[in-house]
Design brief:
The chain has about 230 residues and is α/β, with parallel strands linked by helices. Helices cover about 50% and strands about 10% of the residues. The chain has nine helices and seven strands, in the order E-H-E-H-E-H-E-H-E-H-E-E-H-H-H-H. The protein has a five-stranded parallel beta sheet with strand order 1-2-3-4-5. A hairpin with a 2-residue loop joins strand 6 and strand 7. Helix 1 runs parallel beside helix 2, helix 3 packs parallel to helix 4 and helix 8 packs antiparallel against helix 9. It is elongated.
Protein backbone atom coordinates (compact mmCIF):
# COMPACT_ATOMS: atom_id res chain seq x y z
CA UNK A 1 0.00 0.00 0.00
CA UNK A 2 2.77 2.42 0.92
CA UNK A 3 4.53 1.98 -2.43
CA UNK A 4 1.34 2.93 -4.24
CA UNK A 5 1.24 0.09 -6.75
CA UNK A 6 -1.89 0.02 -8.92
CA UNK A 7 -2.46 -3.68 -8.16
CA UNK A 8 -1.30 -5.52 -5.06
CA UNK A 9 -1.71 -9.13 -4.00
CA UNK A 10 -2.98 -10.60 -0.76
CA UNK A 11 -0.48 -12.85 1.00
CA UNK A 12 -0.72 -16.53 0.15
CA UNK A 13 1.15 -19.79 0.51
CA UNK A 14 2.00 -21.39 -2.81
CA UNK A 15 1.30 -25.12 -2.49
CA UNK A 16 4.26 -27.06 -3.96
CA UNK A 17 3.96 -29.92 -6.42
CA UNK A 18 3.49 -32.63 -5.48
CA UNK A 19 1.67 -32.13 -2.16
CA UNK A 20 -0.62 -34.48 -0.29
CA UNK A 21 -4.25 -33.54 0.25
CA UNK A 22 -4.02 -32.72 3.95
CA UNK A 23 -1.08 -30.38 3.50
CA UNK A 24 -2.80 -28.68 0.56
CA UNK A 25 -5.99 -28.29 2.59
CA UNK A 26 -4.27 -26.66 5.55
CA UNK A 27 -2.20 -24.44 3.27
CA UNK A 28 -5.28 -23.29 1.34
CA UNK A 29 -7.11 -22.45 4.56
CA UNK A 30 -4.09 -20.45 5.69
CA UNK A 31 -4.20 -18.49 2.43
CA UNK A 32 -7.87 -17.69 3.10
CA UNK A 33 -7.12 -16.48 6.62
CA UNK A 34 -4.34 -14.25 5.28
CA UNK A 35 -6.67 -12.94 2.57
CA UNK A 36 -9.19 -11.91 5.23
CA UNK A 37 -6.50 -10.06 7.16
CA UNK A 38 -5.18 -8.36 4.03
CA UNK A 39 -8.68 -7.27 3.08
CA UNK A 40 -9.20 -5.70 6.49
CA UNK A 41 -5.82 -3.96 6.37
CA UNK A 42 -6.30 -2.55 2.87
CA UNK A 43 -7.57 1.03 3.03
CA UNK A 44 -6.58 2.64 -0.28
CA UNK A 45 -9.48 3.29 -2.65
CA UNK A 46 -7.21 4.01 -5.62
CA UNK A 47 -5.54 0.63 -5.51
CA UNK A 48 -6.78 -2.84 -6.52
CA UNK A 49 -6.25 -5.74 -4.12
CA UNK A 50 -6.39 -9.24 -5.63
CA UNK A 51 -7.00 -12.49 -3.78
CA UNK A 52 -5.04 -15.59 -4.82
CA UNK A 53 -6.84 -18.90 -5.40
CA UNK A 54 -4.81 -21.87 -4.18
CA UNK A 55 -5.65 -25.53 -3.62
CA UNK A 56 -2.83 -27.45 -5.22
CA UNK A 57 -3.93 -30.02 -7.78
CA UNK A 58 -7.18 -30.79 -5.95
CA UNK A 59 -10.37 -29.54 -7.61
CA UNK A 60 -12.31 -29.66 -4.35
CA UNK A 61 -9.78 -27.35 -2.69
CA UNK A 62 -9.69 -25.02 -5.71
CA UNK A 63 -13.47 -24.70 -5.46
CA UNK A 64 -13.31 -24.02 -1.73
CA UNK A 65 -10.59 -21.41 -2.16
CA UNK A 66 -12.40 -19.61 -4.99
CA UNK A 67 -15.69 -19.49 -3.07
CA UNK A 68 -13.99 -18.20 0.08
CA UNK A 69 -12.18 -15.43 -1.80
CA UNK A 70 -15.20 -14.41 -3.85
CA UNK A 71 -17.11 -13.90 -0.61
CA UNK A 72 -14.49 -11.30 0.35
CA UNK A 73 -15.18 -9.32 -2.86
CA UNK A 74 -11.68 -8.56 -4.15
CA UNK A 75 -11.02 -6.28 -7.12
CA UNK A 76 -9.63 -9.23 -9.07
CA UNK A 77 -8.63 -12.84 -8.61
CA UNK A 78 -5.32 -14.55 -9.24
CA UNK A 79 -4.77 -18.26 -9.73
CA UNK A 80 -1.63 -19.34 -7.91
CA UNK A 81 0.13 -22.64 -7.36
CA UNK A 82 0.29 -23.59 -11.04
CA UNK A 83 3.36 -23.87 -13.27
CA UNK A 84 5.25 -25.20 -10.25
CA UNK A 85 6.51 -28.40 -11.88
CA UNK A 86 3.27 -30.18 -12.73
CA UNK A 87 2.66 -31.51 -16.29
CA UNK A 88 1.05 -28.93 -18.55
CA UNK A 89 -2.08 -31.05 -19.16
CA UNK A 90 -2.66 -31.04 -15.38
CA UNK A 91 -2.23 -27.25 -15.25
CA UNK A 92 -4.79 -26.86 -18.02
CA UNK A 93 -7.14 -29.22 -16.20
CA UNK A 94 -6.92 -27.03 -13.09
CA UNK A 95 -7.56 -23.91 -15.19
CA UNK A 96 -10.53 -25.53 -16.87
CA UNK A 97 -11.99 -26.20 -13.43
CA UNK A 98 -11.03 -22.96 -11.67
CA UNK A 99 -11.59 -20.13 -14.17
CA UNK A 100 -15.38 -20.69 -14.49
CA UNK A 101 -15.66 -20.33 -10.70
CA UNK A 102 -14.36 -16.75 -10.82
CA UNK A 103 -16.44 -13.64 -11.60
CA UNK A 104 -16.38 -12.89 -15.33
CA UNK A 105 -16.60 -9.14 -14.71
CA UNK A 106 -13.33 -8.98 -12.76
CA UNK A 107 -9.73 -9.57 -13.91
CA UNK A 108 -8.51 -13.16 -13.79
CA UNK A 109 -4.76 -13.41 -13.41
CA UNK A 110 -2.57 -16.51 -13.84
CA UNK A 111 0.61 -16.17 -11.82
CA UNK A 112 4.06 -17.25 -12.93
CA UNK A 113 3.28 -18.25 -16.54
CA UNK A 114 5.13 -16.67 -19.47
CA UNK A 115 5.87 -19.07 -22.33
CA UNK A 116 3.98 -18.43 -25.59
CA UNK A 117 2.16 -21.76 -25.56
CA UNK A 118 0.93 -21.31 -21.98
CA UNK A 119 -0.09 -17.69 -22.61
CA UNK A 120 -2.15 -18.77 -25.60
CA UNK A 121 -3.83 -21.64 -23.76
CA UNK A 122 -4.36 -19.48 -20.68
CA UNK A 123 -6.27 -16.94 -22.76
CA UNK A 124 -8.23 -19.83 -24.27
CA UNK A 125 -9.37 -20.79 -20.76
CA UNK A 126 -10.37 -17.21 -19.92
CA UNK A 127 -7.27 -15.70 -18.28
CA UNK A 128 -6.81 -11.92 -18.65
CA UNK A 129 -3.41 -11.26 -17.05
CA UNK A 130 -0.05 -13.01 -16.63
CA UNK A 131 3.36 -12.40 -15.11
CA UNK A 132 6.64 -14.29 -15.35
CA UNK A 133 10.42 -13.86 -15.20
CA UNK A 134 10.78 -16.36 -18.06
CA UNK A 135 11.54 -13.98 -20.97
CA UNK A 136 14.37 -12.20 -19.14
CA UNK A 137 15.75 -15.26 -17.36
CA UNK A 138 16.19 -17.35 -20.52
CA UNK A 139 17.48 -14.30 -22.43
CA UNK A 140 20.42 -14.18 -20.02
CA UNK A 141 21.21 -17.77 -21.06
CA UNK A 142 21.08 -16.93 -24.77
CA UNK A 143 17.61 -18.35 -25.44
CA UNK A 144 15.21 -16.35 -27.60
CA UNK A 145 11.57 -16.87 -28.55
CA UNK A 146 10.03 -17.00 -32.01
CA UNK A 147 6.66 -18.02 -33.45
CA UNK A 148 8.27 -21.31 -34.42
CA UNK A 149 9.77 -22.14 -31.05
CA UNK A 150 12.87 -21.25 -29.07
CA UNK A 151 16.38 -20.70 -30.38
CA UNK A 152 19.48 -21.06 -28.24
CA UNK A 153 21.46 -18.44 -30.10
CA UNK A 154 24.67 -19.32 -28.23
CA UNK A 155 24.81 -22.64 -30.10
CA UNK A 156 27.56 -23.17 -32.66
CA UNK A 157 25.08 -23.59 -35.51
CA UNK A 158 24.46 -19.80 -35.44
CA UNK A 159 28.13 -18.78 -35.65
CA UNK A 160 27.74 -17.79 -39.35
CA UNK A 161 24.00 -17.24 -39.43
CA UNK A 162 23.55 -13.64 -40.53
CA UNK A 163 19.77 -13.63 -40.40
CA UNK A 164 17.89 -11.80 -37.63
CA UNK A 165 16.67 -13.82 -34.67
CA UNK A 166 13.16 -13.79 -36.16
CA UNK A 167 12.68 -12.45 -39.70
CA UNK A 168 9.03 -11.67 -38.84
CA UNK A 169 9.90 -9.60 -35.75
CA UNK A 170 10.10 -5.80 -35.77
CA UNK A 171 12.04 -5.30 -32.54
CA UNK A 172 15.24 -3.23 -32.28
CA UNK A 173 17.35 -6.38 -32.02
CA UNK A 174 15.93 -8.06 -35.12
CA UNK A 175 16.05 -4.86 -37.18
CA UNK A 176 19.72 -4.23 -36.49
CA UNK A 177 21.67 -7.35 -35.52
CA UNK A 178 22.26 -10.88 -36.77
CA UNK A 179 22.20 -14.17 -34.92
CA UNK A 180 25.93 -14.53 -35.54
CA UNK A 181 26.75 -11.15 -34.01
CA UNK A 182 24.53 -11.74 -30.98
CA UNK A 183 26.17 -15.14 -30.50
CA UNK A 184 29.59 -13.46 -30.62
CA UNK A 185 28.52 -10.99 -27.92
CA UNK A 186 27.19 -13.77 -25.71
CA UNK A 187 30.25 -15.98 -26.13
CA UNK A 188 32.56 -13.09 -25.20
CA UNK A 189 30.42 -12.16 -22.17
CA UNK A 190 29.49 -8.74 -23.55
CA UNK A 191 26.53 -7.39 -21.56
CA UNK A 192 25.14 -5.86 -24.75
CA UNK A 193 24.32 -9.37 -25.94
CA UNK A 194 22.09 -9.99 -22.92
CA UNK A 195 20.38 -6.66 -23.51
CA UNK A 196 19.66 -7.56 -27.12
CA UNK A 197 18.17 -10.98 -26.31
CA UNK A 198 16.15 -9.48 -23.45
CA UNK A 199 14.85 -6.68 -25.69
CA UNK A 200 13.75 -9.23 -28.27
CA UNK A 201 12.00 -11.56 -25.81
CA UNK A 202 10.06 -8.75 -24.14
CA UNK A 203 9.03 -7.28 -27.48
CA UNK A 204 8.01 -10.71 -28.74
CA UNK A 205 5.74 -11.47 -25.80
CA UNK A 206 4.17 -8.00 -25.68
CA UNK A 207 3.47 -8.17 -29.40
CA UNK A 208 2.16 -11.72 -29.06
CA UNK A 209 -0.39 -10.57 -26.46
CA UNK A 210 -1.29 -7.58 -28.64
CA UNK A 211 -2.01 -9.91 -31.56
CA UNK A 212 -4.15 -12.13 -29.33
CA UNK A 213 -6.23 -9.16 -28.17
CA UNK A 214 -6.70 -8.10 -31.79
CA UNK A 215 -7.76 -11.63 -32.77
CA UNK A 216 -10.33 -11.70 -29.96
CA UNK A 217 -11.77 -8.32 -30.98
CA UNK A 218 -12.02 -9.51 -34.58
CA UNK A 219 -13.64 -12.81 -33.51
CA UNK A 220 -10.89 -14.99 -35.00
CA UNK A 221 -9.08 -16.19 -31.89
CA UNK A 222 -9.61 -19.90 -32.64
CA UNK A 223 -8.04 -19.45 -36.08
CA UNK A 224 -5.16 -17.52 -34.50
CA UNK A 225 -4.62 -20.35 -32.02
CA UNK A 226 -4.68 -23.00 -34.71
CA UNK A 227 -2.19 -21.08 -36.85
CA UNK A 228 0.15 -20.64 -33.88
CA UNK A 229 0.20 -24.36 -33.10
CA UNK A 230 0.73 -25.24 -36.76
CA UNK A 231 4.02 -23.32 -36.76
CA UNK A 232 5.04 -23.78 -33.13
CA UNK A 233 4.98 -27.57 -33.26
CA UNK A 234 7.66 -27.48 -35.94
Amino acid sequence: MALGADIIMAFDECVPYPADYEYARQSTQRTTRWAERCKKAHTRKDQALFGIVQGGMYKELRTMSAQDLISLDFSGYAIGGLSVGEPKPLMYEMLDHTVPLLPSNKPRYLMGVGTPDCLLEGVMYGIDMFDCVFPTRVARNGTVMTNRGRLVVKNAEFARDFRPIDPECGCYTCRNFSRAYIRHLLKTDEIFGLRLTTTHNLYFLLNFMKEMRKAILEDRFLAFREEFWTHYRK
